[in-house]
Amino acid sequence: MNMNPGQDWDQVIIRKKKPSSSQTKDSKNVNNAFRSGNVDTLNKFSGGSNKKAGPANATKLDASDEAFAHKKVSTDLKKAIQQARMAKKMTQAQLATAINEQPKIVQEYENGKAIPNNQILGKIERALGVKLRGGNKKKGKK
């Protein structure tokens, strides 16, 4: 029993609409405006450039004759860490496990290549039971 005799559900037809004459005129006007150069454009900061520029103050650093470097672990500190670790009969890996850091970190501290971090130094002090920082201050006589 078919209610709508004129409707066929098996076949679907999609018709594309042709653009109206006003739409084609608008697109022609836009193309002509681009060709004649009457279009305002807005340039973003360094937009459209493929330059790999560094920060603005990089030239100041390059022009400076001072040598800038991070502070490294002192010789006294690296020796103190090594001696305290050896006294506890621990390997670098065991110390690293005790302070919950990678063995590479302990190795860098003992080689003097690490940038001192007070949190890591505190962990090392607690694990080894020694005071590594602030103990070398000389007191004047009163």
Strand and helix map with partners:
Layout: H1 21-36, H2 58-63, H3 75-87, H4 92-98, H5 103-111, H6 118-128
Determine Rg (CA atoms, Å).
37 Å
Low-confidence regions: 137-142
CATH C-level of the domain at 75-128? Mainly Alpha
What is the averaged pLDDT score?
76
Do you know the CATH topology of the domain at 75-128? 434 Repressor (Amino-terminal Domain)
The succession of helices and strands, N to C, reads HHHHHH
Count of individual helical segments? 6
Cα separation of the termini: 116 Å
> How many β-strands, per DSSP?
0
Largest sheet: none
Gross geometry:
elongated
> Roughly what fraction of the amino acids lie in strands?
under 5%
Q: Under the CATH scheme, which architecture of the domain at 75-128 would be assigned?
A: Orthogonal Bundle
Oligomer status? single chain
* Helical content class: 40-55%
Please identify which CATH superfamily of the domain at 75-128 we are dealing with.
lambda repressor-like DNA-binding domains
Helix and strand composition category: mainly alpha
GO cellular component, one term: nucleus
Pfam family, one: HTH_3
Family: Belongs to the MBF1 family.
GO molecular function: DNA binding; transcription coactivator activity
